[in-house]
Write a structure and sequence with these properties.
Elements: E1 3-4, H1 10-15, E2 43-44, E3 52-61, H2 66-78, H3 91-95, H4 99-102, E4 106-116, E5 124-125, H5 127-135, E6 145-151, E7 156-157, E8 166-170, E9 176-181, H6 188-191, H7 214-232, E10 239-240, E11 271-272, E12 279-280, E13 282-283, E14 289-290, E15 295-297, E16 302-304
Parallel strand pairs: 3-4, 3-6, 5-7, 6-9
Antiparallel strand pairs: 1-8, 2-10, 8-9, 11-12, 13-14, 15-16
Length: about 300
């Protein structure tokens, strides 16, 4: 039941260098001699979704600095924060699209945080070891929870940088869990684009990361992708298109799109911080800025961007 979403760049360029991954983007860039694509539709397979109040428990595997942890925790807490009269798009407004899947708002709260700085299972992790680590985040008391394992840049994970930047799955007991790795040292060109030069396709200049850490800002993109997939397709019978366990999901269906007008090698129109030169499209708590991927909107059957 494991799900490995495609790389943001690997899929984006290998599918085609002359058209968009997401059909909705075709409305922003007309190319001649192309057959009009059918709208992308994620089919609902009648399985349970994670709606209502969802607790995210974190297992930090490796030596993350306090600043790195705060960037990721602030992102999660921003998903359900209230920003009244915000002049810019917020992280919460990005997450609000999830309600179109679940039928009611889905709030996210950060629960247990377990530090595994001693590399208790070594620096090479298999899928089975990830499941063991994920179980450490569960302490009971919450019926709807997702345990997320976050691995540091010096931890090699099965499939990491080869076929995935993260994944979500479920245990035999029916608990949903996920994993996301830090690509800063191992594969920034695969799992931290557009903050690093891609290893495939057009070599456009990378964007400046909003929090000054290419690996962590790349993790935000991948965590957003995995978490949205976990909520809308926790047991491989929710919303997806394609084969179960390897299909396109809420965010992976819009791979490589961050703003309007996106095309291969270009993430789309985003906001530029005039002081730092960083690129972003959403503001979270404490004024922290993030770049979040487009999410497929079930109400419009399009890849919805914030800007």
């Amino acid at each position: 039941m494991a799900y490995s979403y495609r790389f943001a760049i690997w899929v984006f360029f290998l599918l085609s260098l002359s058209t968009f991954l997401c059909p909705s983007a075709a409305t922003t860039r007309k190319l001649t001699a192309l057959v009009k694509q059918q709208p992308l539709v994620l089919k609902y397979h009648k399985g349970p979704l994670l709606a209502g109040n969802v607790t995210v428990n974190l297992v930090w595997y490796g030596r993350f600095s306090p600043k790195q942890r705060s960037i990721l925790v602030d992102f999660l807490q921003s998903l359900s924060s209230v920003h009244r009269r915000s002049p810019q798009p917020t992280v919460a407004s990005w997450w609000h699209t999830i309600a179109g899947y679940t039928g009611k708002p889905c709030t996210v709260a950060v629960g247990n945080q377990i530090l595994q700085e001693s590399y208790s299972l070594g620096k090479t992790l298999t899928k089975e070891k990830l499941a063991v680590l994920a179980a450490k985040g569960w302490k009971g008391g919450k019926t709807t929870a997702v345990n997320v394992v976050l691995t540091d840049g010096d931890v090699a994970v099965e499939g990491f940088c080869m076929s995935r930047c993260g994944n979500h799955a479920s245990s035999r007991g029916g608990s949903a869990y996920a994993w996301v790795g830090n690509p800063g040292k191992q594969c920034p060109g695969q799992c931290a684009w557009p903050f690093h030069q891609p290893i495939y396709g057009p070599q456009t200049p990378p964007l400046v990361s909003p929090n000054g850490d290419v690996g962590i800002d790349g993790m935000v993109i991948n965590l957003a992708t995995v978490l949205a997939g976990t909520v809308t397709n926790p047991f491989n019978n929710g919303y997806f298109q394609g084969p179960a366990g390897a299909g396109l999901e809420a965010v992976s269906a819009c791979t490589g799109i961050f703003g309007k007008g996106a095309y291969p090698g270009y993430p789309g129109e985003v906001v530029l911080d005039k002081t730092t030169g960083a690129s972003y499209n959403a503001v979270g708590i404490r004024g922290r800025k993030y770049l979040l991927p487009a999410m497929w909107d079930p109400k419009t059957s399009t890849c919805k961007t914030l800007v």
